[in-house]
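Customer ticket, subject: "Can you confirm the structure for Acyl-CoA dehydrogenase family protein?"

Message body: Hello, I'm evaluating your service for our small team and ran a test protein. I'd like someone to confirm that this is what the system normally returns, since I don't have a reference to compare against.
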Amino acid sequence: MTTIPAPETESTDIDPVPDLADAVTDFYHYEQLLDADERDLLHRVRDFMRTEVHPLLLEYWSRAEFPQQIVPGMAELGLAGLPYQGNGCPGRSFLLDGMIAMELARIDCSVATFNGVHGGLAMGSIYLCGSDEQRERFLPAMSRYEKIGSFGLTEPGVGSGASGGLLTTAERIGDEWILNGQKKWIGNATFGDLTIIWARDVADGRVKGFVVDNHSPGFDVQKQEHKFALRIVQNGLITLTDVRVSEEDRLQNANSFADTAAVLRMTRAGVAWMAVGCARGAYENALAYAKSREQFGRPIGGFQLVQDLLVRMLGNNTASWGLCVRLSQLQDQGLAEDRHSSLAKAICTTRMRDTVGWARELMGGNGILLEHNVGRFVADAEAIYSYEGTREMNTLIVGRALTGQSAFV
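Agent reply: Thanks for trying us out. I re-ran your input and got the following:
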């Protein structure tokens, strides 16, 4: 895996992570739904994010680079492919996986996205759509972060219409497939090792998945610059020019977009959890600020309008957290459907957007300074609101379930 060297000096001129009692952050004690061993891992992730990741954020967010030095720590914690059974994966619950996604996003949404792309989308594609041999060949190294994965679905001209409009093509010639096309917004692609490419088979018109080595001839990646959200995530524009992939690297159980959708159903739940983490991080920083910032001779936390904002934020976070808890329980029971993930993603991201805005409002002008930790959440919320299915698309999925009528174009 190619790494980006750390800078010689790293800025720590950033407010510390608030050390707030669970009673004012986990208001309904959702963590108690985890057993003692699961809570221990969650708290170790929390400590890692606070002590190892948080001090790097101002520098790396400003430079739009990814801190490669945090990857060994994530590997030691064993966070990749957390709910998958076998093939070197931890085999833990979806509830724990969701709470950890929230914990990562609570400090930085980009780090949560990096792990969601690698452990969720890339590993999940192989786990759900690969053969037994493919799972054994790829997943153990990926679970150890020795091979970093990406997920290539979105294209420059195709976003929400991916189910019927993919332009990237796959043509089989003998025991090989020839891939041509472009993929856009592909997280981890600039430094990763392999990418799951979804392409339309020119023979039957069906969408199929391929595990593509990023160093293959004809595989070109350009970093997408000038983002104002998720700046630490390294998004790539991938151009595939006659890239040859062997039949053994075609995902053997991915034979239509319905199989792609199964991966998205699972990972969309993780994005809902990230939205809760994003909102929670903004709320906690705003609450700590309200307790310490003084105006008119006393902390602003004692003013009615400030308390109103705090309660609105807490209400959004607590309700969204409960929605995600039940969704993860359905996943653990094997009962989760597209409509469940879509409702959670649509509602949690909408409430997240409101919450981070109120956190910025509470801080006044200081809210736009990165050093106060809320500005990143405000910016990053815009990306979470849109990726893995916009609010509108998820609304149509739920609306179809309610009415039995499809309102898609």
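A couple of notes from the result: Residues 22-143 form a domain with the Butyryl-Coa Dehydrogenase, subunit A; domain 1 fold (CATH 1.10.540.10). Residues 294 and 300 are 6 Å apart (CA to CA). Feel free to reply with more questions.
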